[in-house]
Write a structure and sequence with these properties.
- The chain has two domains: 4-127, Thiol Ester Dehydrase, Chain A (Roll); 158-249, Roll (Thiol Ester Dehydrase, Chain A).
- It is 16% helix and 37% strand.
- The protein has four helices and eleven strands.
- A hairpin with a 5-residue loop joins strand 10 (227-234) and strand 11.
- It is an alpha+beta fold.
């Protein structure tokens, strides 16, 4: 019960201009598998809603070895790693039909009050899920992203703005985490990113809501060729909603 496996078939409408599966769709597969596993463990969204709670993604590191094309069967394997006071680590490995690893991911989840919109401590039925000696998809699960220095000539040379639409809002009534990834990748492209995306880290700091305008400020990461830091801010009060790092490797 502590490991869950789910198979997805890639569809042509999920592809980008390179005829490869969009990164947001990869994240959607992981979220779908995580939700199904949570249901099987008795900690799914319907159970949390009974206590006026909901799951929310707090951090993610996705390392991509290969993005699949159309008509491929993708197996997502996921399992809980650790349960702390307010953070639940869940890992993922994605395989192709030949059992080659496509991607690995580390995620940190929190629970949020549906009325208070604040982080809450885990109820007992989540706290009891701590597994013994679980495997790790990535050895380092500590996800940190520096703040880009916007005071110098290389600080935040690219800025974009995205009005939040109804289509950007998910079942938690805030901007879906995948949309922040889309915004960051759009900004990286404008900043001159080249090659294949091989890693994306993201930390969610506050909720974006319908009607907000999200400004994405992007700068190259110092001393890290091919890496960009993205600050995603709400324009009305300049609050940072998320921070991301995108890393591109030479093809």
């Amino acid at each position: 019960m502590h490991t869950h496996k789910e198979v997805f078939l890639t569809r042509r409408y999920e592809l980008d201009t390179d005829h490869l599966l969009r990164v947001q769709c990869i994240c959607n597969y992981m979220e779908e598998a995580a939700g199904a596993h949570a249901d099987a463990l008795g900690v799914g969204l319907s159970r949390l809603l009974e206590d006026n709670l909901t799951w929310a993604l707090a951090k993610m590191r996705l390392i991509l070895h290969r993005r699949p094309g159309p008509g491929e069967n993708i197996t997502v394997v996921t399992w809980p790693v650790s349960v702390e006071r307010v953070q639940f680590r869940r890992d993922f490995i994605l395989y192709d039909s030949r059992d080659a690893i496509l991607a690995t991911a580390v995620t940190q989840w929190v629970v949020m009050g549906t009325q208070s919109r604040r982080l809450e401590r885990f109820p007992f039925y989540i706290a009891e899920l701590q597994p013994e000696d679980p495997p790790l998809a990535q050895e380092n699960g500590d996800i940190r992203i520096p703040v880009a220095d916007d005071s110098g000539p290389t600080g935040y040379p690219v800025g974009l703005s995205f009005p939040v639409r109804l289509a950007d809002i998910d079942q938690n009534r805030h901007v879906n985490n995948g949309r922040y990834i889309d915004f960051s990748l759009e900004a990286a492209d404008r900043a001159g990113a080249s090659g294949d995306l091989c890693q994306i880290d993201i930390i969610f700091r506050a909720e974006g809501l319908r009607g907000d305008v999200i400004a994405v400020k992007t700068a190259p990461e110092a001393d890290c060729p091919g890496s960009f830091i993205h600050g995603l801010f709400r324009e009305s009060d300049e609050r940072e909603l998320a921070r991301a790092r995108t890393v591109f490797c030479r093809p």
